[in-house]
Amino acid sequence: MSVKITTVSKQLPPFSRETKKVIPFVETWLEGQEERFKRKVVKIFEGAAVDKRYSIMDPAEVFTATSFKDKNNIYCREVKKLGTQVLQKALKKANWEANSIDYIITVSCTGIMIPSLDAYLINELDMRQDVVRLPVTEMGCAAGISGIIYAQNFLKANKGKRAAVIAVESPTATLQLDDFSMANMVSAAIFGDGAACVLLSSEEDAQGPEILGQDMYHFFDATNLMGFDLTNQGLKMILDPAVPQTIAEHFPKIIHPFLKKHNSSIEQVQHLIFHPGGKKIVQTVEDLFGDLGKNIDDTKEVLRLYGNMSSATVLYVLERFMEKPVSKGEQGLMLSFGPGFSAQKILLQW
Predict the structure, then answer these.
(1) If we measure between CA atoms, which residue out of 137, 121, 129 comes closest to residue 81?
(2) Where are the domains of the chain?
(3) How far from 172 is each of 16, 50, 119, 165, 175, CA to CA, in Å?
């Protein structure tokens, strides 16, 4: 049964700063640290390939010491707004009514909400009482693709249905002001906040690129590479420097068997929809794809304009391709990496 991606929309939070205007906040934050360390951190920000980022809080608030509870309360309040706005925007673009949705998936890993975001969206948009809901948490940057995979599996089993995947993330709400590790510095330099919504359909007259295949590739004994530690101060970033090299070592096994399984090859894929995890990961994957004659220019542009918004970011890249004049029959490969460690993939055909 054919499942197609009908619409992709994004929603940005109300606050934003160019990186050059964030650096003074960083310098104030690092007062008391060694001068050499401060210069190194500033260089990380300057070289992160992120020109601007958005946040649910004013930058002054981001760099103010508040409790985990206070920041999580801001997260809960703001993701409800962003989730509602981005779902409404996508529905309007697709000319769908909220009560036509059969399956709602919400994706986030940067805060804690019980009930999860989908429960609030059902009330806010007056959705059907029998809508099937699935909150996806704890999957990090890969979860935008995870949500689409789960939606496709539901729609493949249910002809004539509709699904919405809403990813809302606020990495700035997880910034640890008393953590001066390189992992925290790098994450502060590359992350921003944002929301995205993907609408999918298994209706006969559905428009948009078709999902030809999807797959998850799990790395053994790599749970230490990426994630969060839950501390009394909040969610503390885990980001191992070995991530780019680990990706490079597994790359052929991640890409080629998956495409072969779906009667395709990298030569048949015209469009690469890759999650911009950060400058080093982007450079690693760009080199690997470059050797195969491909580019990830849209990925780099999303990183430059918005930073890494965790699960929502790859959906920003997807939106760029949805808005391009892509020819019928052309294929696109979605790819993202996340805690576990795992690589998640979707093969699309327009």
Answers:
(1) 121
(2) 4-201, 210-349
(3) 12, 14, 24, 22, 5
Q: Which tokens belong to 188?
A: 């502060």
Select 210-349's CATH number: 3.40.50.720, 3.40.50.20, 3.30.420.270, 3.40.47.10: 3.40.47.10
Query: So what CATH class is 4-201?
Result: alpha beta
92: part of which helix (H) or strand (E)? helix 68-94
CA–CA separation, 15 and 59 (whole Å): 8
**Other Cβ atoms closer than 10 A to 250:** 16
Which residues, including other chains, have CB under 8 Å from residue 330's CB and lie 6 or more apart? 270, 271, 349, 350
- 168 with 106: CB under 8 angstroms? yes
pTM for the full predicted model: 0.93
Q: What is the largest CA-CA distance in the chain?
A: 63
Nearest to 237 by CA among 312, 195, 181: 181
d(CA 330, CA 45): 37
With H, G, I as helix, E, B as strand and everything else as coil, classify residue 221: coil
Per-residue pLDDT of the chain (350 residues; tens, 9 = 90+): 799 999 999 999 999 999 999 899 888 888 888 899 989 999 999 998 999 999 999 888 888 878 889 999 999 999 999 999 999 999 999 999 999 999 999 999 999 999 999 999 999 999 999 999 999 999 899 999 999 999 999 999 999 999 999 999 999 998 888 888 888 888 888 899 999 999 999 999 999 999 999 999 999 988 998 888 888 888 878 888 888 888 888 888 999 999 999 999 988 999 999 998 888 888 888 888 787 777 889 999 999 999 999 999 999 999 999 999 988 999 999 999 999 899 999 999 99
Nearest to 208 by CA among 252, 152, 170: 152
Sign of CA dihedral 344, 112, 124, 61: negative
The residues pairing with 335 across neighbouring beta strands, listed in sequence order, are 274, 345
Tokens 């673009």 locate to: 93
**What is d(CA 332, CA 148) in angstroms, rounded to the nearest whole number?**
14
